[in-house]
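$ ./design --mode recover --in tokens.txt
reading tokens...
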């Protein structure tokens, strides 16, 4: 595995596997350093596939024995797998291999996490368990026997037998190997049940370590809500007698949708009011839904190959967002998602890592579980739904499930059901899957004799490997407002298909104000030089909650950019307009909290770069601080009033209503701290009975430079809770002064509790460093170097997590030559590490290309 020859896989090279696998029987005899895996696979030649040699993937496996139809054979073994001569007709292939889960620090395949066995097979981890055609279009029925002394032994499907030291599972649904899972350990369950609408009784279990049982209630409720929602909204029922979820402490990602046995990072499922924040609860609800929804969009209908990843991920993200919108506030969810899309996906699309929603080549597929595949992939589905309408969307989905159940599919299959249901030609729309980059939309207006004309012009900038772009189908949701703030054109979806196109609105009494891209109807950058007056008008009057929020964001950004480039004062007209919104008690507190947000410093850096100005991280930091101070002073009277409105008297509940209030409260507390130096925060810290309030107070105290005592108390209180200690690590870095960020990070890496092999802890620390714009981009390059040192160290143990974190350097080209040189040097140093993994090699190569 370490001899990372760069082998590139291309979508256009797809060829089906030469055999179908009728059945899979696996036996695991568990031992930390010498687990035996016996497999019995029934192969039948596939007449539709081209003739090929028999090759099974397999990596890091110690071969013990092989047989074909009962006769011992000696296949040729390579670092990637095995080759064998096989009979012309059907045959049974048996293998026994040995693996060492205890030494598997990459957390792919079968590994151990604090004494418990667990697996992660997506995307290509099954080949580290045994020899197999490890590709998603090979689906089979698995029977699994587990032998070992662990009290709980789980696999996919339904339990079919158990005795002293063994358990057997059978999964009746054919599945690709990436959905295989096994768990064994000393676990306890929070149990419940769910009756599907056709009457199937499903046993639900959430398996955890003994001490975590009190953190299971919320996850279980989220699971039941998800099951109910998918029945009501998509008509999808669960299809096994049991649904198991297991929490593990060492996990590269958030969670995994293995058939009937979802495996979750503890951070993505365990929560109690004392230990988890409102944001944690909301994320848990969304991830549980997401993994559950994969049972249909991913498992029953899977991907033909990994280029089709967005087929399951984009769709499932879209579905989990619909679920969250229904469970909480749709308006708030949309804004939060757009903030996230811009921060992560737009940044990716504008840098060297840009790739299409359906990539055309890769070296390591793990590097393509990206914001583009996931979040832009979900946006593409949202656009499709908007273009065809809700009714056609749901008929297309019904057809998709009916036609493709049990199959491994492509984006072509997905689009075809929409074409058939709507009789619409989607060939131009399909470009959204093939063309990388964020389209820019320029807007020109004309007003004459009661007729308003809107001219839209689209361009998509070049991205790696794609210099020229064709026009896309862009749904632009538009409303028109009269000068007195009435809606004269309710939301209408314009379909932009040409490079440039005009839309005419006759018969208007006065020149209207356009409210463009309502609900963020397409993932594009709107380039519109609208006046400050118009934005202030929309902030006051827009009837669409998204564009109203957007007007505020545009004002905030323009204000900050002027502060950075011209040393301007904060924009009083904007702040007055915003104050009116903040005072409007009829508005949801969560929405007002979002209005209090300002663009991230990284977003400002990109905006400056787009305008031909080299961003200076220190100046951006200073301007942001100056704006915050000015707002605190300006709103000194208003803040206590808002704090009152934000107060929650009832016992803690992580629902939308309460968490919205608390998010307003913490935004207000951050401003208040600038006035009182932390007294209010100290009071809140002392009386906090939930983690949301405790943590927001602690952040304020650290920011105000009086966090030392509270940090020590916090640590003493939460020393035994890993997930809370992750927060303790991350917060100190996130809330640090940029001059101190690197030193704080460095000091924390010497802390005895800094277990850098645990992905959550590593991310808590280095994710916070990379996320601190001014701290990370310190002029002397110390931030770049520190991160590189640790990425080099982690790569030997865990390439997947290391590779993901390399994205911290993705915007290196937008800074000054000095910083560019320092980031480039850090990347070169990583690239030069002997034995660098394939994962990181690919990332660094793309970053410096
Ligand atoms: N299938 C993925 C998990 C995965 C990702 C496995 C990459 C292997 C490699 C899972 O469904 C997923 O998408 N999880 C997300 C959370 C989700 C809410 C977007 C995750 O783990 O971050
Ligand atoms: Zn997923």
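writing sequence...
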């Amino acid at each position: 595995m370490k001899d990372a020859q760069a082998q590139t896989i291309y979508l256009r090279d797809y060829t089906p596997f030469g055999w179908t696998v009728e059945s899979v029987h696996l036996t695991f005899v568990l031992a930390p350093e010498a687990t035996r895996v016996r497999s019995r696979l029934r192969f039948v030649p596939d007449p539709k596939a081209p003739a090929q040699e028999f090759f099974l993937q397999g990596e890091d496996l110690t071969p013990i024995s092989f047989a074909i139809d009962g006769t011992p054979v000696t296949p040729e073994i390579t670092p990637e797998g095995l080759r064998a001569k096989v009979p012309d007709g059907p045959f049974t292939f048996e293998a026994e291999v040995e693996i060492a889960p205890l030494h598997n620090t990459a957390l792919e395949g079968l590994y151990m996490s604090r004494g418990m066995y667990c697996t992660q097979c997506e995307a290509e981890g099954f080949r580290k368990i045994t020899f197999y055609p490890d590709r998603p279009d090979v689906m089979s029925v698995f029977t699994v026997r587990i032998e070992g002394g662990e009290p709980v032994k789980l696999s996919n499907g339904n339990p079919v037998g158990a005795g002293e030291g063994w358990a057997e599972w059978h999964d009746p649904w054919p599945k690709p190997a990436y959905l295989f899972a096994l768990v064994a350990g000393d676990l306890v369950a929070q149990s419940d049940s769910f009756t599907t609408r056709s009457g199937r009784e499903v046993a639900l279990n959430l398996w955890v370590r003994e001490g975590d049982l009190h953190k299971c209630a919320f996850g279980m409720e989220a699971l039941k809500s998800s099951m109910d929602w998918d029945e009501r909204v998509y008509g999808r029922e669960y299809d096994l007698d049991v649904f198991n979820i297991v929490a593990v402490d060492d996990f590269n990602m958030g969670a995994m949708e293995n058939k009937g046995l979802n495996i979750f990072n503890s951070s993505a499922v365990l929560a109690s009011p004392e230990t988890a924040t409102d944001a944690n609860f909301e994320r848990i609800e969304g991830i549980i839904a997401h993994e559950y929804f994969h049972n249909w969009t991913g498992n029953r209908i899977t991907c033909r190959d990994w280029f089709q990843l967005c087929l399951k991920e984009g769709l499932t993200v879209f579905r989990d967002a619909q679920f969250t919108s229904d469970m909480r506030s749709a308006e708030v969810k949309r804004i939060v998602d757009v903030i996230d899309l811009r921060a992560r996906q737009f940044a990716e699309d504008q840098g060297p890592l840009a790739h299409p929603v359906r990539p055309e080549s890769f070296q390591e597929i793990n590097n393509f579980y990206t914001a583009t595949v996931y979040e832009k992939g979900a946006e593409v589905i949202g656009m499709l739904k908007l273009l065809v309408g809700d009714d056609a969307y749901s008929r297309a989905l019904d057809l998709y499930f009916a036609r493709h159940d049990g199959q491994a599919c492509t984006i072509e299959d997905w689009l075809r059901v929409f074409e058939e249901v709507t009789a619409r030609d989607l060939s131009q729309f399909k470009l959204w899957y093939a063309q990388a980059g964020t389209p820019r939309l320029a807007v020109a207006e004309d007003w004459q004799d009661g007729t308003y004309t809107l001219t839209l012009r689209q361009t998509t900038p070049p991205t790696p490997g794609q210099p020229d772009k064709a026009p896309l189908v862009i749904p632009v949701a538009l409303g028109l407002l009269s000068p007195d703030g009435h809606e004269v054109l309710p939301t209408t979806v314009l379909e932009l298909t040409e490079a440039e196109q005009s839309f005419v609105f006759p018969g208007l009494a006065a020149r209207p104000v356009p409210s463009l891209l309502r609900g963020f109807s397409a993932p594009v950058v709107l380039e519109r030089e609208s006046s400050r007056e118009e934005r202030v008008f929309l902030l006051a009057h827009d009837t669409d909650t998204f564009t109203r929020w957007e007007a505020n964001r545009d004002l905030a950004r323009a204000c900050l950019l002027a502060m950075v480039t011209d040393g301007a004062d904060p924009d009083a007209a904007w702040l007055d307009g915003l104050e009116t919104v903040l005072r409007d008690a009829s508005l949801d507190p969560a929405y007002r909290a979002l209005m209090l947000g300002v663009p991230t410093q990284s977003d400002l850096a990109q905006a400056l770069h787009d305008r031909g100005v080299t961003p200076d991280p220190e100046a951006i930091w200073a301007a942001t601080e100056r704006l915050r101070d000015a707002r605190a002073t300006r709103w000194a009277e208003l803040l206590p009033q808002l704090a009152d409105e934000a107060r929650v008297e009832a016992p803690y509940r992580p629902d939308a209503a309460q968490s919205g209030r608390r998010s307003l409260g913490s935004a207000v507390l951050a401003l208040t701290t600038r006035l009182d130096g932390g007294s209010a925060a100290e009071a809140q810290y002392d009386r906090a009975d939930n983690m949301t309030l405790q943590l927001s107070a602690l952040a304020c105290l650290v920011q105000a430079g009086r966090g030392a005592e509270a940090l020590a108390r916090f640590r003493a209180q939460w020393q035994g809770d890993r997930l809370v200690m992750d927060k303790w690590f991350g917060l100190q870095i996130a809330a640090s002064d940029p001059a101190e960020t690197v030193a704080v990070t460095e000091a924390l890496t010497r802390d005895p509790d800094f277990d850098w092999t645990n992905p959550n802890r590593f991310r808590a620390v280095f994710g916070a460093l990379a996320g601190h714009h001014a701290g990370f981009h310190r002029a002397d390059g110390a931030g770049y170097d520190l991160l590189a040192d640790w990425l080099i160290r982690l790569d030997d143990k865990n390439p997947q997590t290391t590779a993901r974190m390399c994205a911290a350097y993705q915007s290196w080209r937008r800074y000054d030559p000095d910083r560019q040189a320092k980031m480039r040097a850090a990347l070169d140093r990583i690239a030069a590490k002997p034995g660098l993994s394939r994962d990181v090699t690919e990332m660094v190569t793309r970053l410096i290309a």
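exit 0
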